[in-house]
């Protein structure tokens, strides 16, 4: 039994939201990840493949279309975790990679470290032969407009999966929050905060206000609740509820070791898409 669930960010529902684009984008990404799983690929392969699709889609706040810093630049964060080995890789503040999730995976598998930031992460990516792009290539007109209008962008992306060997993985990628200070790092590249995976607990990817998610180590909290025996949806709901104390709103997706896909969000919306042996689906609001 293999399964994958992706999210395309949690946040307020605005009249001009591209609801269909976000739902379709999530479904396309979930299908890409599922195809990897169906062919016998690992959960890590699947979450990387799904997140790359979302990073390439300008609808989402990751890769192309990322939210911009106060200075109008894209500074990207991403992380990935392998639930079988507890290996993890992350990058923060990278400015010249369209697919920071692949850079995070290289950090996990080839650097001997868990996290690289800024210029060091970029030098490592170049050494690894990953393609670079000018920062402007990541900047869309919509992201510039959001910055000018002081609107918070929410469209961080993430994926969780279980593969045919029963192993779990999680991945998250983002441009962060619109108008952030240069150098700000959110929850997305922090293991246990935006991303967590442990075959004995769950794989989790979060989205929402990073400053609040970090304070409650949301991804790890949700995974612990699954380990305590809670149903996946109940664990997701209770973990998200802990955020109120940290004065933030967020959402998360998870997959349990039994292959249950579940999610919860305290925002108005969290776009999502999934594929498992029973079929596929997508959602945007509370529907
Ligand atoms: N969690 C992301 C961050 O704070 C933003 C988001 O999910 O919308 O960087």
Please give a structural write-up.
The protein contains eight helices and twelve strands. It has 287 residues and is α+β, with helices and mostly antiparallel strands. Helix 1 runs antiparallel to helix 2 and helix 7 runs antiparallel to helix 8 (232-241). The longest helix has 20 residues, at 19-38. The model has no long low-confidence stretch (mean pLDDT 96). Bound molecules: aspartic acid.
Strand neighbour order, sheet with most strands: 4-3-2-6-5-1-11-12
Annotation field: number of helices: 8
Helical residue percent band: 25-40%
Largest sheet: 8 strands, mixed
Quick structural overview:
31% of the residues lie in helices and 26% in strands.
Keywords:
Glutamine Phosphoribosylpyrophosphate, subunit 1, domain 1, 287 residues, 12 strands, four-stranded antiparallel sheet, binds aspartic acid, eight-stranded mixed sheet, alpha+beta
Q: What is the topology?
A:
Elements lengths: L2 E9 L7 H20 L4 H14 L19 E7 L5 E7 L5 H11 L4 E3 H10 L13 H8 L8 E6 L5 E7 L20 E4 L3 E7 L1 H7 L1 H10 L4 H10 L8 E6 L5 E5 L3 E8 L2 E5 L4
Parallel strand pairs: 3-4
Antiparallel strand pairs: 1-5, 1-11, 2-3, 2-6, 5-6, 7-8, 8-9, 9-10, 11-12
Helix pairs in contact: 1-2, 2-3, 7-8
Bound molecules: aspartic acid.
Aspartic acid binds next to strand 8.
């Amino acid at each position: 039994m293999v399964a994958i669930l992706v999210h395309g960010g949690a946040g307020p529902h605005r009249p001009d939201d591209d609801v269909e684009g976000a739902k379709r984008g999530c479904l396309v990404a979930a299908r890409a990840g599922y195809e990897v799983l169906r062919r016998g690929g690992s959960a890590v392969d699947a979450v990387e493949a799904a997140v790359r699709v979302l990073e390439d889609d300008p609808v989402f706040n990751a890769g192309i279309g990322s939210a911009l810093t106060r200075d109008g630049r894209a500074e990207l964060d991403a992380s990935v975790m392998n639930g079988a080995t507890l290996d993890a890789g992350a990058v923060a503040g990278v400015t010249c990679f369209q697919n920071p999730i692949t850079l995070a995976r290289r950090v996990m598998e080839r650097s001997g470290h868990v996290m690289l930031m800024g210029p060091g992460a970029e030098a490592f990516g170049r050494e690894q032969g990953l393609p670079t792009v000018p920062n402007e290539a990541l900047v869309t007109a919509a992201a510039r407009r959001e910055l000018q209008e002081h609107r918070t962008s929410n469209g961080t992306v993430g994926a969780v999966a279980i593969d045919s060997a029963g192993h779990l993985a999680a991945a998250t990628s983002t441009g962060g929050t619109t108008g952030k200070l240069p150098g700000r790092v959110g929850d997305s590249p922090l293991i246990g905060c935006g991303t967590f995976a442990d075959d004995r607990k769950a794989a989790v990817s979060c989205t929402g206000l990073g400053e609040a998610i970090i304070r409650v180590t949301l991804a790890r909290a949700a995974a612990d609740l699954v380990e305590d025996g809670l149903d996946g949806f109940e664990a997701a709901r209770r973990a998200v509820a802990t955020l109120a104390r940290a004065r933030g709103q967020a959402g998360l997706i998870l997959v349990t070791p039994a292959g249950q896909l579940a999610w919860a969000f305290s925002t108005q919306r969290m776009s999502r898409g999934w594929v498992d042996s029973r079929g596929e689906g997508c959602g945007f609001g509370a529907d």
